[in-house]
């Protein structure tokens, strides 16, 4: 497996890719498969305890001789059939403003993906050389995750020194079609011809359909992989149609013709992600003050890493402190999310939505909080763009029933999954989604948009609550109405509510089922 993230290692996860790359190898190992996972070291992972240097691989990149070091490192969970590998190179290091290592680099709008595309193009060349030199056990299949790993397919297809890769089946998983890693063919140090100057390539196979002078790694994965995989069955159908964001529909994001061709060729498979259900798992059920004190300690830790106190941490600390002094609310709403256009489109202020007087309509979040009133509280944990974080902080300063925790802590997330009453997932689209599975695992029903993997996991009024909408306005309105109906159900019909909670708790989306489909559909020739 070749990926940018791997939560099988400490501090090597940003989003859902990390969860999948953590869980799938262990599930495959339980079926007696041997799995090697490789990601970049990001300048620090190879220094973790137990790291063992394996080999230095030498290759050509950007017209010069280059070298990278390969390490093996113990994973969080040890299994004899799973190896965790790292490739270290000075250019794989990325820092955030506080001096901490980060996986992805935020490039300016005029050069999107420039730093990361160069990083992963180099990483894939090192992987290709390691395969060629036999550093890995000879694989039956190489499984690539998202656009970051798709450069390996360019190398296999168009660089004559790596034709050994053509004898190996390559599967490609789409985790998020909205992020495609598009870069120019030439004319920039972060471009295809700069990375691989000796390449002789078919421009039609690599060109972005919207920008003919650019290469699209996501499209490369779809066109050149032996099997293309999306992380839910419904999402595999949705992306065959063009996106129509005016009405809130997210489809193929410009790549629908290539996806349809892959389906017609029998190469496109929709297989739902799984979730772990450990028998020895200890769910931390906390009373209300203990829950808030745990969250409060998370805020203090985040604030302690900043040179000056941010408004978001100040407001969150003040809000949580005040809530601790109040009685336990009748209902606690929760969200754990990355704050992006995908996840918060129904919660942030939508300037295109206007009331009859021409003023901006209230966001879905504001309407939910007004409807919730003094009957409960809503706690949202997450990070995202500065504009979205500012908005959520401002709303929290105005609404006493809303706390926005601007950061991420695994302990805080687990506490919210285990101790919330109703989990909100305001996604316009969702390839699969893991948060709804984690909340359901702890018996917390979810409110979700009836799309993608959410459609494949949540059944309305059975184990959760769903909404739809044929326009952005309808989606916002129906999201709010569904949330308020669920709140009323919890407060007015406790027997029915407990039935839904128990149904959510009993649901099982097992990795063992998922990886059997991987073997049959993605890995076998």
Characterization of the model:
- The structure is a single chain.
- This protein is α/β, with parallel strands linked by helices and 525 residues long.
- The protein folds into two domains: 16-274 and 512-523, 3-Layer(aba) Sandwich (Rossmann fold); 288-508, 3-Layer(aba) Sandwich (Rossmann fold), CATH 3.40.50.
- 38% of the residues lie in helices and 17% in strands.
- The protein contains 19 helices and 16 strands.
- It has helices spanning 16-29, 114-132, 151-158, 192-195, 203-206, 217-224, 233-238, 256-264, 288-304, 311-324, 341-344, 364-372, 386-398, 410-419, 435-441, 452-455, 472-492, 494-506, 511-523; strands spanning 35-40, 52-61, 64-73, 82-88, 141-145, 169-174, 183-184, 214-215, 227-230, 268-270, 331-339, 376-384, 402-405, 422-425, 446-449, 465-467.
- A six-stranded parallel beta sheet has the order 13-12-11-14-15-16, with helices on both faces. A four-stranded mixed beta sheet has the order 1-4-3-2, with helices on both faces.
- Strand 15, helix 16 and strand 16 form a beta-alpha-beta unit.
- Helix 3 crosses helix 6, helix 10 runs parallel beside helix 13 (386-398) and helix 17 packs across helix 18.
- The protein is globular, with a radius of gyration of 23 Å.
- The protein starts with 15 loop residues before the first helix and ends with a helix.
């Amino acid at each position: 497996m070749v990926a940018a993230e791997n939560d099988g290692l400490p501090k090597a996860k940003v989003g859902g890719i990390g969860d999948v790359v953590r869980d799938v190898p262990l599930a495959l190992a339980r079926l007696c498969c041997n799995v090697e996972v490789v990601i970049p070291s990001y300048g620090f992972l190879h220094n973790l305890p137990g790291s063992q240097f394996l080999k230095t691989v030498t290759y050509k990149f950007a017209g010069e001789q280059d070298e990278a070091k390969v390490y093996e490192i113990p994973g969080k969970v040890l299994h004899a059939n799973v190896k965790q590998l790292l490739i270290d190179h000075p250019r794989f290091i990325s820092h955030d403003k506080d001096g901490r290592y980060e996986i992805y680099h935020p490039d300016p709008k005029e050069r999107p993906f420039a730093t990361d595309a160069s990083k992963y193009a180099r990483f894939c060349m090192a992987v290709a050389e390691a395969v060629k030199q036999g550093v890995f056990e000879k694989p039956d299949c190489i499984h690539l995750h998202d656009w970051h790993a798709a450069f390996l397919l360019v190398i296999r297809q168009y660089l004559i020194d790596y034709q050994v890769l053509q004898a190996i089946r390559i599967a490609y998983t789409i985790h998020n079609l909205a992020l495609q890693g598009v870069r120019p063919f030439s004319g920039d140090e972060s471009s295809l011809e700069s990375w691989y100057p000796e390449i002789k390539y078919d421009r039609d196979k690599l060109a972005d359909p919207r920008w003919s002078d650019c290469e699209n790694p996501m499209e490369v994965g779809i066109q050149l992989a032996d099997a293309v995989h999306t992380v839910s069955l419904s999402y595999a159908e949705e992306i065959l149609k063009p996106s129509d964001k005016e009405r809130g529909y997210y489809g193929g994001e410009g790549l629908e013709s290539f996806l349809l061709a892959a389906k017609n060729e029998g190469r496109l498979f929709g297989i739902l992600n799984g979730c772990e259900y450990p028998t020895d798992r200890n769910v931390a059920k906390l009373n209300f003050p203990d829950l808030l004190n745990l969250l409060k300690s998370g805020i203090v830790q985040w604030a302690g890493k900043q040179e000056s106190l941010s408004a978001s941490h100040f407001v969150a600390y003040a809000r949580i402190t005040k809530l601790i002094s109040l009685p336990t609310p009748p209902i606690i709403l929760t969200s754990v999310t990355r704050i992006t256009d995908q996840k918060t489109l129904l919660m942030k202020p939508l300037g295109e939505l206007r009331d009859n007087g021409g003023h901006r309509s209230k966001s879905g979040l504001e309407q939910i909080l007004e409807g919730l009133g003094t009957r409960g509280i809503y706690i949202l944990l997450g990070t995202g763009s500065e504009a979205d974080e500012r908005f959520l902080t401002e709303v929290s300063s105005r609404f006493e029933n809303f706390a926005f925790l601007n950061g991420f802590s695994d302990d805080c997330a687990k506490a919210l999954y285990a101790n919330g009453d109703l989990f909100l997932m305001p996604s316009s689209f969702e390839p699969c989604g893991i948060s709804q599975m984690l909340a359901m695992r702890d018996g917390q029903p979810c409110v979700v948009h009836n799309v993608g993997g959410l459609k494949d996991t949540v059944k309305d009024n059975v184990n959760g609550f769903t909404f739809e909408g044929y326009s952005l306005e309808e989606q916002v309105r129906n999201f709010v109405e569904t949330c308020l109906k669920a709140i009323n159900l919890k407060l007015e019909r406790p027997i029915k509510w407990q039935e839904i909670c128990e149904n959510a708790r009993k649901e099982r989306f097992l990795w063992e089922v998922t990886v059997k489909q991987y073997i049959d559909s993605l890995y076998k020739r």
